[in-house]
Design a protein that fits this description.
- The chain has 412 residues and is α/β, with parallel strands linked by helices.
- The chain is 43% helix and 19% strand.
- The chain has helices at residues 23-28, 33-80, 86-116, 127-142, 162-178, 238-248, 301-310, 323-332, 349-359, 361-364, 393-406; strands at residues 11-14, 123-125, 147-152, 158-160, 190-198, 201-208, 252-258, 262-269, 292-297, 315-320, 337-341, 343-344, 347-348, 367-371, 385-388.
- The N and C termini lie far apart (82 Å).
């Protein structure tokens, strides 16, 4: 008896152009075609609600993480300047453990932000980062079913939505894990992710040594509502959505399979145009010709204190807890740059930026927003640098120097 991959067919081929969702395809799964469509709509609504909730949660987590992690790093720096002693060694170890714990939380929050962000505009994306994030997200779900390995070559960026590319990879990896024979143990199963540059394209291959796909299933592989899973275990939309997402990024998805040997799905994407690639440039921090004076606007005073503490050797940081207070400080002194939180009591950083752009245009190009929100939480002004909390002080410093050195001369 021929076995089938849970969500897919066998042979070798490329996804066919998208067609209209077929009621017949749904009926093949034993249910009312309308039920699947209603379920899909309900699922979309639930995901939108989850995205809104996570935007709020990540904001509330990122603010304290910013000053906790900043202070731990400052403590490590201070301990490094003390004379050697058993007490210093123990405190150094405790601080390092606290920093590692904070960094784990930063990774978790970052994964959530990437997964549920709503800004799906294509941007230059490093495939290695998306592969790492995707595998971290699904690891807990697949580790009892299969081993997982990855190999990622040095690759040019691709022009894509990181959220959508991650969604495609997670779907393919989960499908691969579910394709394993029930009779085998996890140590005998293997899912591999291989990213390479081939024939002028970035190729991300997800392979398994599972049951393979029956040749007769291949024509229906990417049709909506087609699935070999039980009715309540899948909507049959996974590969249909994957194909549409990949094509929207200018790519294509292909599949090769052999029954009882395994299956490989290949996502092939064009590299980003050279003009849009993230260029590595000489660090601007070495070009700062004077000690910077920075206005930091945030209603979390512990964030202001932590940043000032970490930058005390390189910049004078003046704090303000609201838009009104910030404007008063701008009237009383000169600043090289402004960093503002987005959401604050009594006004937003975006409102402050708009006022600076109108009344102090020489500072508009030296204005940076910092936010603990997910990308779903707020629409940011076009062209304004944005730093996500919790940020690394070295990243903050590099951004500051880039803003100041690259800013146009004040108009006369």
């Amino acid at each position: 008896m021929t076995r089938s991959h849970p969500d897919i067919p066998t042979g070798a081929g490329e996804a066919k152009p998208a067609g209209r969702p077929s009621g017949v395809a749904a009926m093949l799964r034993g249910g009312d075609p309308g039920d699947d469509e209603v379920s899909a709509v309900a699922h979309t609504q639930r995901m939108a609600t989850i995205g809104t909730l996570l935007s709020s949660v990540t904001h509330e987590m990122n603010n304290p993480l910013t000053f906790v992690l900043g202070n731990v790093r400052a403590i490590e720096e201070l301990l490094g300047g003390l004379p050697p002693s058993p007490e210093r060694e123990e405190l150094t170890m405790m601080a390092a453990e606290a920093r590692l714990g904070c960094e784990r939380l930063v990774t978790i929050v970052g994964d959530l932000r990437l997964l549920y962000r709503s800004n799906d505009e294509p941007e230059p994306v490093h495939v290695s980062e998306v592969v790492e994030q995707s595998l971290r997200t699904v690891r807990a779900k697949i580790r009892r079913r299969t081993q997982c390995e990855r190999r990622v070559d040095e690759l040019p960026p691709v022009l894509a939505s990181p959220t959508r590319l991650s969604q495609v990879l997670m779907n393919l990896v989960l499908n691969a894990a579910e394709a394993m024979p029930q009779s085998r143990s996890a140590r005998d199963n293997l899912v591999s992710v291989d990213a390479r540059f081939e024939d002028g394209e970035v190729v991300i291959a997800v392979s398994d040594n599972g049951v393979g796909i029956a040749p007769g299933d291949m024509p229906s592989l990417f049709e909506p509502f087609y699935s070999k899973k039980p009715l309540k275990e899948g909507s049959g939309l996974g590969l249909y959505v994957c194909r549409n997402l990949v094509e929207a990024m200018g790519g294509r998805i292909l599949v090769e399979s052999e029954v009882d040997v395994g299956t490989t799905f290949m996502v092939r994407l064009p590299p980003a145009p050279a003009a849009q690639e993230r260029r590595s440039v000489e660090s601007p921090s070495s070009k700062a010709s004077h000690r910077l004076r920075v206005l930091l606007v945030d209603d979390e005073q512990m964030i202001v204190a932590a940043v000032a503490r970490q930058l005390r050797q390189r910049a004078d940081v003046v704090g303000a807890g609201s838009v009104d207070e910030a404007w008063g400080k701008l009237a009383d002194g000169t600043f090289d740059a402004i960093i503002s939180d987005v959401l604050m009591d009594g006004g937003t950083g975006i409102e402050l930026y708009e006022r600076v752009r109108e009344e102090r245009p020489e500072l508009a190009s030296r204005f940076m927003l910092a936010t603990g929100l997910s990308d779903a939480g707020v629409e940011l002004p076009e062209g304004v640098t944005c730093l996500h909390k919790p940020f690394d002080v070295e990243e903050l410093w590099e951004r500051l120097c880039t803003l100041v050195i690259g800013a146009p001369a004040p108009s006369q």
